[in-house]
Write a structure and sequence with these properties.
The chain is of the alpha+beta class. It is 51% helix and 17% strand.
């Protein structure tokens, strides 16, 4: 099941000729910008060597600011070159997306009411904060994405002011025939009056939970590189700003790198193990808000039926729809 900002997929529509022409023009504009920044990159590469090569001439022509000219050329080369490369790649990417959209001529449509109780849906929050979605009760919203890329074409009939890439919620569905069971008293917190049930996760849901566990283990592979980055930054601060002796700086830098890597490792390891246990147990708990909770008792739960995984405590289904954070289902 795929959702965009909590809205259900309702099908595709074809672009008319004027829309395809407009996308073609936008694609050409982005291509021109990409070529401009692509040409800026080699110019910036040779700028500083040229100023050094002709330093005597620059100082003769502008003796009072000759040194500043050389300094500016160095800054332009160091900072301008990465910026030019980044901007060029970004505009080439946009040109490619718009070109594919104009060529395919199809748009994916998502429509429905927003699930404002789902605080895990980053896409809905992102679009709502930019005023692109209606948040009034019972308002129906419509989001259109390009057919081959998760890029917003329109929201409620209006083109967004900028190029917006989003992530779709991709979630395995529960088995509709799965029965619901009561929750053993040992599973409940004796101090809280909560209405809970449980159900078995479907095979697709269990595989999805395992994929999140594997994702947390994959982060561990990059800890070595992250530790090197922390070491380098700490070295810069301890030697450059605090003027430590080199051996003290090395000890502090290595210690910071190792400590942060260990903290991240145990955090990711904990999440992976909890998710693996959720997958092995294969249960989801369903919380139904009580009257006290609906009146605002201060409990940090949405005021709608919520399914969550019992060990990791991650929201799984909120008010009948998959939680917005879910991204890993193959269904």
């Amino acid at each position: 099941m795929r959702l965009c900002a909590g809205l259900s997929y309702v099908g595709e529509r074809e672009l008319d000729e004027s829309e395809r022409s407009a996308l073609g023009r936008e694609s050409n504009i982005h291509m021109a910008k990409a070529l401009f920044f692509a040409l800026c990159a080699p110019a910036l590469i040779i700028l500083f060597p040229l100023t050094i090569w002709h330093e005597h001439l620059i100082r003769a022509v502008v003796p009072h600011i000759g040194a500043y000219v050389i300094g500016v050329s160095l800054i332009a080369c160091v900072f301008g070159l990465p910026l030019a490369i980044f901007m060029s790649r970004d505009y080439f990417r946009k040109e490619e997306v718009l070109g594919r959209a104009a060529e395919s001529g199809n748009i994916r449509c998502f429509e429905g009411q927003l699930n404002m109780d789902d605080r895990t849906d980053a896409v809905r929050t992102f679009l709502t904060k930019r005023g692109l979605l209606r948040t009034a009760d019972l308002s129906v919203n419509r989001i259109e994405l390009f057919s081959n890329d998760d890029v917003v074409y329109m929201t409620n009939g209006n083109r967004p002011p900028r190029f917006l890439e989003v992530e779709l919620t991709s979630a395995a569905l529960p088995d509709p025939s799965t029965p619901y069971f009561s929750v053993p008293a040992a599973w409940k917190d004796a101090d809280l009056e909560v209405d809970l049930e449980r159900r078995r996760l479907s095979e697709g849901e269990i595989e999805e939970v395992r994929s999140y566990a594997k994702e947390n283990w994959r982060y561990v592979r990059f800890l070595f590189l992250f530790g090197i980055a922390v070491f380098g930054m700490t070295e810069i601060f301890t030697l450059g700003f605090f003027e430590m002796e080199p051996y003290r700086s090395h000890v502090v830098s290595v210690g910071c790198g190792i400590a942060i890597c260990i903290a991240i490792f145990y955090r990711r390891k904990g999440w992976a193990e909890r998710l693996e246990k959720d997958a092995d147990n294969g249960w989801a708990l369903i919380h139904y808000p009580t009257e006290n909770e609906r009146k605002g008792s201060g409990m940090d739960l949405p005021q709608v039926p919520v399914e969550f995984l019992p060990i990791s405590n991650l929201f799984w289904i909120i008010d009948g729809k998959p939680a917005g954070w879910r991204r890993k289902s193959a269904e």
